[in-house]
Automatic annotation (TrEMBL):
Annotated EC: 3.1.1.-
Residue ranges of domain Carboxylesterase type B in the record: 5-488
Alphabetically ordered keywords of this record: Hydrolase
Name this polypeptide is given: Carboxylic ester hydrolase
């Protein structure tokens, strides 16, 4: 291992070279956040800095409702002063395509420093990899400006603002790290994919970045101002019930804030109805920073897309939640009646229930419905709108974890994308064909970053407008027509005014 320095317009940064990759960790892309500024828009650093970029930056405060096997216990400590990014580059004198990763975690958890996001693999495909942190939960996606009468300025879009400022920092400085500022791809999974899609609506001209990859997420996970204000009111009421006034919120430790956040659930403002998206904290379509109709704003964008889902997204939840594990026929139909118009219930059930009786048939049917409802509808919407500029995929390599009962669950593709499948802490979750699948993902994703097409010697990809083609990604990838398109459309058309 040796040390390396880069001097760019943002300042001088000292990193390390290890195994022929140059790593720069924890680079601040905004002014430090404090209790007084934690709910305000991020500010660009207005002078050059000198920074030791050999240690990972702090994680954003996490709002944890319940632990998951995806929770990474090795992430750095939490702090509101979390706005930093990591850079990995093989050649600081190069002019390579840039890929910026936006992590997922339902807008409430996650970190660019998760063990899943290995910085050592993708850059070997001649791209510069950047991973960014942004504010989460009550600090990044809580609208308090109106309900606090202006005492707290947050618009609910601070997390998206952080991401955009990070992308702008990369565009201004990445040339000195070996990246081409005119060839930037942003990519993310789950809330990261929602963020990628919404950033594409915020900057649809393609000048800030020209390509985007949405893994299990579309352009739907945002609130209107009314729901944002309801959520803000619930947060303030919860604080008040705990003896905390609005002014006190500016003085509290971040752990006290996230404790308040984890005490509230989106169902508390649902009045018994099913809310979509099924999350509490989310960006606000305010017509100011985020367009009122994001997907319409993106309609004529030249930004090229890859959009896809995993085959069994919802099993990450349905295989653990008591509601699903004990699901019977009556509760199955009750849930359908909450979600869909009465006239469509029988057709939907017929599409998803097995032809003959089987064990756990209602659990599996509802899990598959929720996979299509939560992820499939919105992936299809982007592919249909942007079809001649979009590539689709369907990841269906089952995980061997828990004897395979999770299938290709939500986020199960991440170890392959980042080449972390071989890590001891992760390998039990991954296929015996992990190396082959990982190589396919990495070649396809980096080819897309380089050329705007994921096609390579491994496989020729067609855009979605050619026979509604998508790539089935598994140990034997192939191009086929999109599966289940008609039943996904049926769900979309049958929404119960949600």
């Amino acid at each position: 291992m040796s040390y390396i320095s880069v001097h760019c317009s943002a300042g001088k940064f000292s990193g390390v070279n290890d195994n022929n990759i140059n790593f720069f960790y924890g680079i601040p892309f905004a002014k430090p956040l404090t209790n007084k500024t934690q709910w305000q828009a991020p500010e660009k650093i207005d002078s050059q800095i000198s920074y030791d970029a050999t240690k990972r930056g702090l994680s954003a405060p996490q709002t944890i409702y319940q632990d998951s096997f995806l929770t990474d216990p090795n992430m750095p400590d939490e702090s509101v002063d979390c706005l930093s990014l990591n850079i990995a580059s093989q050649n600081i004198n190069g002019n390579m395509p840039v890929m910026i990763w936006i992590h997922g975690g339902a807008y409430i958890t996650g970190s660019s420093n998760s063990v899943l996001y290995d910085l050592n693999s993708l850059p070997r495909h001649e791209i510069v990899l950047v991973t960014i942190n942004y504010r989460l939960g009550p600090f990044g996606f809580l609208k308090l400006d109106e309900v606090s009468n202006g005492e707290i300025k947050s618009s609910g879009n601070e997390g998206l603002m952080d991401q955009k400022l990070a992308i702008e920092w990369v565009k201004e400085n990445i040339a000195e790290f070996g990246g081409d500022p005119e060839n930037i791809t942003i990519f993310g999974e789950s809330a990261g994919a929602w963020s990628v899609a919404l950033q594409s609506s915020i900057s649809p001209e393609g000048d800030l970045f020209s390509k985007a990859i949405c893994q299990s997420g579309g352009m739907n996970a945002f609130f209107d101002k009314e729901r944002g204000n309801q959520w803000g009111e619930l947060f303030l009421k919860t604080a008040h019930d705990n003896g905390i006034k609005i002014n006190d919120l500016l003085l509290l430790d971040h752990k006290q804030i996230t404790s308040l956040a984890s005490a509230i659930k989106h169902t508390m403002i649902s009045s018994g109805k099913w809310l979509s998206p099924e999350i509490g904290f989310a960006p606000i379509a305010d017509g100011n920073f985020l367009p009122l109709n994001p997907i319409k704003n993106f309609q004529d964008s030249p930004i090229k897309l890859i959009v896809g889902t995993t085959a069994d997204e919802y099993r990450l939840w349905s295989e653990f939640e008591p509601y699903y594990l004990n699901l019977n026929k009556d509760n199955f139909y009750k849930r359908l009646n909450k979600l869909f118009i009465t006239e469509a219930i029988d057709r939907i059930a017929e599409n998803y229930l097995p032809k003959g009786k089987s064990d756990n048939q209602y659990k599996h049917a509802l899990s598959n419905i929720m996979t299509d409802w939560t992820f499939g509808i919105h992936a299809l919407e982007l592919l249909e709108q942007h079809q001649d500029n979009a590539y689709g995929y369907f990841f269906n390599e089952p995980s061997p974890f828990l004897n395979g009962k999770l299938g290709a669950y939500h986020a199960s593709e991440l170890p392959y994308v980042f080449g972390s499948a071989s890590k001891k802490i992760i390998q039990d979750f991954c296929s015996k064909e992990a190396q082959k699948i990982s190589n396919f993902f990495q070649v396809s994703w980096t080819q897309f970053a380089k050329t705007g097409s994921p096609s390579s010697d491994l496989m020729r990809w067609d855009t979605y407008n050619i026979r509604e083609s998508i790539a089935f990604i598994n140990s034997s990838p192939k191009i086929k027509s999109m599966p289940n398109k008609e039943r996904i459309k049926l769900l979309h058309e049958s929404k119960n005014n949600l």
